[in-house]
Sequence to fold (621 residues):
Amino acid sequence: MVLSRKIALINLTKESVRVSSIPLDLRRTFLGGRGINMYLLSKVYSKTLDPLSPQNPLIFGAGLLTGTLGFGSRINITAKSPESGYLGDSNMGGDFGAELVQAGFSHLVVTGKSQKPVYLLIRDNEIEFRDARSLMGLDTVETQRRIREELGDEKIKVASIGQAGENLVRFASIHTGMKNAAGRTGMGAVMGSKNLKAVAVRGTLGITISDPKHYLRYYLSEKKKLMETKWVQALGKYGTPILFQYSNTMGFLSVRNNQWTTIGDQGYALEAEALEPYTTGMLSCFGCPAHCRHRYSITEGRYKGARGEGPEYASLGSLGTKLGNLDLEHIIYAVDLCNRYGLDTISTGSYIAWAMELYQRGFLDQEQTGVPLHWGEGEAILELLHHIAHRKGFGKILSEGSFAKKQLGKGSEAYLLDIKNFPIEMTDERLSKSFALGMATSTRGACHMRSRPSLDVLGLPEEVLKKIYGGPVSNQLSSYAGKGRMVWWHELFNAVTDSLGFCRFLTIFSSPHAPSYRQFARLIKLATGLNLSVKELKTAGERIYTLERMMLIREGLSRKEDTLPKRYFDEPVPEGPAQGEVILREAFDQMLEENYRLHGWNKNGVPKKGTLRRLGLDNED
Ligand code: SF4
Fold:
């Protein structure tokens, strides 16, 4: 049964494993995936917990419905973040989560530090520690191949770190397949700090569905509706690069570290259609009907022989426009290099963009950087990627991420666009006030995946928005009205989708016609037998988000950290379709207060006693 999947507590120092079942009450209150991960992390989270210490737990958590047919394939990986120093959490697609569930486990809590490099082998309720010395120094793709070869089983699914994780680069990621990544917040560095090179999983236990006949019928009817949406059709054809054109034409893009927000007609070179000559097919994560992942091959020119998956929209922007780099083949190659080294493409691009702006402004010169850091300088970008992954030369400084502020000298911090020590992404949010607020309040630092209310760009009728969000919300992208509510709603909703293992792209996150709470409740009931009302699901989202907030409160963070880079407040967008857009401090504060009020938090962003009591989080008080 779905609900009989276990939690394994794995201590690498002692090479011990303890397995426990998941109480039904924990399922009802935190669901699974991100929710139960947060519950587990909160038990040990403190201001003094060192992210790279053996005490920091690295928690793998498959969603409640991960591994069931259809919408659930995802897994969250959670720990205290070495990149921000605060809460770390990253969501990964592919097949690894579903395989873990089929091997009998929903959650792995890995603590301690192995004396020698190891990997974990998990097969049908059994967990083994295996020597990984021969895998050290290998990239993420080769590591997976070698483990399959060693075990003589092509069906084994592996989550692994590359050289960046081994070398404790603060923004190292964990990968499965060619490019599925738990990319953000440095979970790969936490794994590296434990001498854990990989987790290999093979599960043949299957998943028993509570009411298979009605589950299948309901799933197929919901799938049919989903596949008829324009969004999923475009996603299946072009993948996430479909978003690039919109961002460019609206003025949402990060260009040269957000000094500009569009590249105008030059954008044709990076649009989804431009990727078509390289595309050899589309793939999907476990059981997903949308199959949004490009597989590509470069057959001639400088990067001849490069084969892989992607690049996603986020990586196109992060290693492309953000760095003033408009060479598509170079971007494809650079993204693949990051995937193999196990570097988060978003953070990597952000830190290089920071260095490039410092170079532009004379804070840095070639003597310090070793390479000319002019915008769009392709060879220099590649050189830096190698150096960051191996912590060499100037790459060693950048491998410290936002902690490099001290080493780069006074004044340098003004050009790192970060929130809570975590850099913003491939976009610029001065046009969209809801997106901006969501970045400011996100519980893992500047992040578009914690709340991004993508529906805001559709300009839906305000009656429709009112129905979805339960109160008035403006349908104007640059308006502040009701956006605190909109962001609050998505903060809870995304906590729920991450806890169920659903991909955001298949939910109301992207289309008003896609599944939402009502469909989730029905799928949970049919798959697990668990009766959870829409209200209970919403409350679970609220509980998870508030618990995350309480971990930040333990760090001493509050309202003053829920802010945006200075550039967003002080520098109107200089040109292009978003020209003149800027964030007005007073209006931003009002959005923030609306958001806090709906969460049941005080004006300083601290959850009120009554809120904690209502959510059963009294111990957090
Ligand atoms: S929509 Fe794309 S990212 Fe999401 S589960 Fe499907 S294939 Fe994976």
Observations:
- The chain has three domains: 2-202, 242-417, 433-501+533-620.
- The domain at 2-202 is CATH 3.60.9.10 (Aldehyde Ferredoxin Oxidoreductase;  A, domain 1).
- The chain has 25 helices and 17 strands.
